[in-house]
Amino acid sequence: MILDAIAEYDEMGRDAFLNTYRYRPARDYFLVHEGRRYDSKAIAGVAHRGVTGQPLLAGEFSGGRETVARQLIRLGFDVTAPGLAIGENTIENLLLKIGSLRTGTSRLTGRPRRHQPLTLLWAHGRAAQDEPRLEQWQQTSTDLSALISKFGNADDRPNPEFPILRLFHDGLWDLDESDVPPASTSIAQRWMRDHAPTSGLRPWVHTIVTQHADVRAQIVLRLLDKYFEGDDHEALLIAVGLVTVPDAEVALIDGSPSPQRRQSTTMRVIRDSALAQQIKNLHRHHCQICGRRLELPNGCYAEGAHIRPVGEPHNGPDEPGNLLCLCPNDHVLFDRGGLTLTDDLQIFDELAGQVRGSLRLAPQHRINIAHVAYHRQVARQS
Ligand SMILES: [Zn+2]
What we know:
The protein has about 375 residues and is mainly α. It contains 17 helices and twelve strands. Zinc ion binds next to α16. Keywords: Endonuclease, Hydrolase, Nuclease.
């Protein structure tokens, strides 16, 4: 019965199926079948035809979405719970989850509580330094308590139990325990202290943020922008190990940079990575020169390439008009002057002395011709 409803859904397409039976699109509970997602309540309602001869329309449905989900699970189907999408361990889904943390609000400041953002920043710092994914509770608890005390809202209690449990239930965190209680009660806190679980990012999350420094940077940036606006980002980044303190001696020999300058450099590096990620997403990781997309087990790979180099002496700007999405080979060819672009964005092979085709473009990504001309000039000088 369920399978018939799934087949009908596949045949009609999601919109038509939902319209026909007057269901609203599901937001939290999806039935997952053969790697595809289905609105669980609509499927259950339509499957009801097998019982009564009539599908249940949305309005005739008494069971809540959770009840439906439980019944489907009992029938042996996978159902995603809120914030926990089965079979969707993708970068996009990770960013979605990071963007929708349920943090609660500080009564004192009226701002979101910072337990979960701090826990995530801490874990990303560990990932950035190639530390083990899992950590003993004693260490986790000590580290997080200190971070919450120092960087939390003034009324954020330094209790690391709740963010860990919350992130666990939202599919981002791993605990070496079963029968994990919900995150809200004092029972939960006691349970955590008694069990002292080893914990850390879920394996798929850990894999993404260790293998993709740009995704990691994007997550860090989003957390900083959303939860720590107006705060001293550098102190926080240093505390979680996402930025190392510059070597004082080197700084002195080079004519020591001021703290302001250091902070802006730090933030620029992180912002750059996030911008490059946006450009890559616009092109869906297809190389703008050869069109190829490298597909890896954990997602696609491409590189953000500046047209006018950002370093001295070229000082190209960090803006979309100065970025390309390229595969690693074409990135090297472009950076070393083997390939250039004409003013009408044809790809010019400098060795063969001829045009190789047109640069692939995306509607929302306008390339600045001035940077293209600059790059061409530099390539031909060297
Ligand atoms: Zn390429």
